[in-house]
Design goal:
Number of helices: 0
Number of strands: 23
Length: 242
């Protein structure tokens, strides 16, 4: 069985602006079946590649719920779930309040054959476009990754907000929660904020406080020479629980 990949909203090299007043997608679900070679599953709420995508209502609440579950395989039963994935030099303009919940659960053995890959990866919002993304409204994001059968690669990796190239600027209240449960003895990442060769600004413009409530559950992880996280926790209800 081939890899099952699902994108609720997919845009690539669009010659025009893709515009929504608001978005509600609560049943984005990909689930692998049974396959000797592959039973993996990949699901996206929004995947924007080399296109301009926007939401226009500052008052709306936008909701995205994504689940991906690997099936049973002797080789590949991994699972990946993304709320928003912004890629390949695209432009993204997101207004309003955002509530995003992503969960990836890797699969299992097939007929006693352990898969070589039963990794789980979950990311709430990812910017790898090389461009800067600003979110003006409040953001609540939860990312959960659960590794599958014990195999060569059964890691679990979860990130609430992630940038790999370009910046991600959050201008309002933010709640970011990351949880990862790997297979026994395997590695895991549970990062509320993850900057991998990019910049994340939360509760600050990079220099000054924005006076917003920031609630973070998970690690803060900055990698590569240009991985930068700027976060300000100066409001009474703000906290970091690593």
């Amino acid at each position: 069985m081939p890899v099952l990949m699902l994108s609720a909203v997919y845009s690539e090299n669009a010659p025009h602006t893709i515009s929504f007043e608001s978005l509600t997608m609560t049943k984005v679900n990909a689930e692998g079946g049974n396959g000797v070679d592959s039973a993996s599953a990949i699901a996206y709420g929004i995947q924007n590649r080399s296109s301009y995508l926007e939401t226009t209502s500052a008052d709306a609440t936008n909701t995205i719920t994504v689940t991906a579950k690997g099936g049973a395989s002797g080789k590949d039963a991994h699972a990946e779930a993304y709320g928003i994935s912004h890629e390949d030099h695209g432009q993204l303009r997101l207004m309003g309040n955002w509530v995003i919940d992503v969960r990836a659960t890797a699969g299992s053995a097939l007929g006693g054959m352990l898969p070589e890959n039963s990794e789980a990866s979950a990311v709430g919002i990812m910017n790898s476009s090389g461009n800067d993304v600003t979110m003006a409204g409040p953001v609540t994001v939860s990312a959960t990754a659960i590794g599958g059968a014990v195999s060569d690669d059964a890691a679990a990796r979860a990130a609430g907000l992630y940038t790999a190239n370009g910046s991600l600027q959050l201008n309002d209240n933010v709640t970011a929660i990351a949880s990862a449960t790997p297979a026994t003895g395997k590695s895991f990442i549970a990062a509320a904020l993850y900057a991998d060769n990019g910049t994340l600004n939360v509760g600050t413009d990079g220099t000054l406080s924005l006076g917003k409530t920031i609630k973070l559950e998970g690690d803060l992880l900055a990698k590569q020479d240009n991985g930068v996280i700027n976060v300000t926790l100066d409001q009474p209800a703000s906290y970091l629980q690593g």
